[in-house]
């Protein structure tokens, strides 16, 4: 029997609901249950693919090619369950479906309305594409009280009623602010938030209260009394020094016990959290510290590179090293301050990106790494920048560039117009819609044997997740290889360069895909493990 847990948020945004959902998923999994985690986003975009990462954070790409909310990254990292297209939906997607059905005449002349048509579409999504999952955790984006959340709240209320309370649980996450002048944690915003939920017919059974200090017994009882919730189901979610401590804390606070008790399931045997304790231990007592410079365009919001940040930390966990991240706006490198600011780092990473702004700085960062023999990791755009740098400075092609910005004389990086997905040919042109049309999701890649990359992966056939529209032009292979930059990974048809490496450098690698999306704390991605190892070696030299 599949049970549904709905997680809403109140009082303020950025409460860490995504992490809370991921952590609860991990705890239920540690109890032996099969979980699935989903996110319902109330905004009007069809998916976050067209949203600026500095506004909304990273776009997380699934194996099946969906561009999704970054919370799905937390879900995957915490539970190891690969997310799918059917795990994230937005108001935009729901409305597109409803309107397409209306145009086809599927509603047989009915007046199409938010209730029941939109809410039915949301309910159908919640229950779709499921197998033998024990628990489906559905996080509702936004904050209770937002106008745009209403159809989702109405839909989960109905869903809970349809399946009955024995199969549906409502968890509400709130904030208990501490007022220094009063010397107290204040419960009123939480009371109001629960009232707001009640006004749409939802009585939460568990409250998850974010707070920077333990909740005194008196406050807990007060919240329980006013919000109609048992005191033991008012769970404190205290700030943690690392996100990987969160499942451990939740368990200590009794969160998973209370969820099981709600459903009448036994909670006598505690979950095994050894692997979480190990990860936290490694994070807290590393052997040393190295610094990685991340040269990108969206450095003003760290969430723009959420998976990247986590993957680098995973690389540190694998090597027992603390990884300090220095976020550097690539634009500063267009002036001569470059050398000074890159001198102290032990590794340089140029992540994914779009558009011309900041590219000159990224190219200079790649050049610096190459010349100074500092480990260089180019991801997607970062690989394209390394290719342009080698073409311009070593292959005698000073006007090499990407057609993503202008019409260079030597388009070493160009628009991909067609490629194979399995046995299907995908075709795109200049006039194609921007949303959802890139080369997205998992694609296979063959690695040339006896190369550094084959060694790092320990195999020559791999699959990685992609999100790009431009590609390195295979016709420049010879020129690039003469310049020392070897194309060592290709799509199986041999047409799309997927990986490059330099043999005259301790660690200089570029990949066209996003390995950070598949890294997990308990299974750090081999590229990140190897990159951090190289950075540690570099740090011993200086
Ligand atoms: N803008 C580049 C492209 O579309 C790189 C994309 C990326 O880094 N994700 O190919």
Structure description:
The protein has 542 residues and is an alpha/beta fold. The chain folds into 2 domains: 3-278, Rossmann fold, CATH 3.40.50.300; 286-541, Rossmann fold (3-Layer(aba) Sandwich), CATH 3.40.50.880. It is built from 18 helices and 25 strands. The strands form 6 sheets. The chain has a 9-stranded mixed sheet, with helices on both faces. It has a 7-stranded parallel sheet with strand order 5-2-6-1-7-10-11, sandwiched between helices. A 3-stranded mixed sheet has the order 16-17-22, with helices on one face. The mean pLDDT is 93. Bound molecules: glutamine.
Short description:
With 542 residues, the chain is of the alpha/beta class.
Rounded average pLDDT: 93
The small molecules bound here are: glutamine
CATH topology of the largest domain: Rossmann fold
Strand content: 15-25%
Task: Give me the secondary-structure topology.
Elements: E1 3-9, H1 17-30, E2 35-41, H2 53-56, E3 60-61, E4 67-68, H3 71-79, E5 88-90, H4 91-104, H5 114-126, E6 135-140, H6 150-163, E7 168-175, E8 178-179, E9 184-185, H7 188-199, E10 206-211, H8 217-227, E11 234-238, H9 246-253, H10 255-263, H11 274-284, E12 288-296, H12 306-319, E13 321-329, H13 338-342, E14 347-350, H14 359-372, E15 376-379, H15 381-393, E16 400-402, E17 410-415, E18 418-421, E19 424-427, E20 439-447, H16 452-457, E21 461-468, E22 470-472, H17 477-482, E23 485-490, E24 497-502, E25 508-511, H18 526-541
Parallel strand pairs: 1-6, 1-7, 2-5, 2-6, 7-10, 10-11, 12-13, 12-14, 14-15, 15-25, 16-17
Antiparallel strand pairs: 3-4, 8-9, 17-22, 18-19, 20-21, 20-23, 23-24, 24-25
The structure holds glutamine (GLN).
């Amino acid at each position: 029997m599949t049970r549904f847990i709905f997680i809403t948020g109140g009082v303020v945004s950025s409460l860490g609901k995504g992490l809370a959902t991921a952590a609860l998923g991990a705890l239920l999994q540690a109890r032996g249950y099969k979980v699935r985690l989903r996110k319902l986003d109330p905004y009007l975009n069809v998916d976050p693919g067209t949203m600026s990462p500095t506004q909304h954070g990273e776009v997380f790409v699934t194996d099946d090619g969906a561009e999704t909310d970054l919370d799905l990254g937390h879900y995957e990292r915490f539970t190891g369950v690969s997310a799918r297209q059917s795990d994230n939906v937005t108001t935009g997607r729901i409305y597109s479906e409803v309107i397409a059905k209306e145009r086809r005449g599927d509603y047989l002349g009915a007046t199409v309305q938010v209730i029941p048509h939109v809410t039915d579409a949301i309910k159908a999504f919640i229950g779709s594409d499921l197998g033998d999952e024990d628990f489906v955790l559905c996080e509702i984006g936004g904050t209770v009280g937002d106008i745009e959340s209403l159809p989702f709240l109405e839909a989960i209320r109905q869903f809970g009623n349809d399946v009955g309370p024995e199969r549906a649980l409502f968890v509400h996450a709130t904030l208990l602010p501490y007022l220094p002048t009063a010397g107290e944690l204040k419960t009123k915003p939480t009371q109001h938030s629960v009232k707001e939920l009640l006004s749409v017919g939802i009585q939460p059974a568990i409250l998850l209260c974010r707070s920077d200090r333990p909740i005194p017994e008196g406050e807990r009882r007060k919240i329980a009394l006013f919000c109609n919730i048992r005191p033991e189901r008012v769970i404190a979610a205290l700030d943690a020094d690392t996100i990987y401590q969160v499942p451990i804390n939740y368990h200590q606070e009794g969160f998973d016990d209370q969820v099981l008790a709600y459903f009448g399931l036994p909670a006598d045997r505690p979950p095994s959290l050894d692997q979480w304790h190990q990860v936290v231990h490694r994070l807290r007592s590393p052997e040393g510290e190295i610094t990685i410079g991340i040269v990108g365009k969206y450095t003003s919001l760290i969430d723009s590179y959420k998976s990247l940040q986590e993957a680098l930390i995973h690389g540190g966990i694998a090597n027992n090293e603390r990884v300090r991240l220095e976020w550097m706006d690539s634009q500063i490198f267009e002036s001569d301050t470059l050398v000074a600011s890159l001198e102290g780092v032990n590794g340089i990473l140029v992540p994914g990106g779009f558009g011309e702004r900041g590219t000159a700085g990224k190219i200079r960062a790649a050049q610096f790494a190459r010349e100074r023999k500092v480990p260089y990791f180019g991801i997607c755009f970062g690989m394209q920048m390394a290719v342009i740098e080698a073409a311009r400075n070593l292959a005698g092609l000073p006007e090499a560039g990407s057609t993503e910005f202008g019409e260079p004389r030597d388009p070493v990086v160009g628009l991909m117009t067609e490629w194979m997905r399995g046995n299907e040919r995908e075709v795109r042109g200049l006039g194609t819609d921007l949303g959802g049309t890139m080369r997205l999701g998992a694609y296979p890649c063959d690695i040339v044997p006896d190369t550094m990359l084959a060694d790092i992966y320990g195999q020559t056939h791999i699959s990685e997740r992609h999100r790009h529209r431009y590609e390195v032009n295979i016709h420049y292979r010879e020129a690039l290889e003469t310049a020392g930059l070897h194309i060592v990974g290709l799509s199986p048809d041999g047409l799309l360069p997927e990986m490059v490496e330099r043999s005259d450098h301790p660690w200089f690698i570029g990949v066209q895909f996003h390995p950070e999306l598949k890294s997990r704390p308990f299974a750090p991605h081999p590229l990140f493990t190897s990159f951090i190892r190289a950075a540690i070696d570099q740090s011993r030299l200086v």
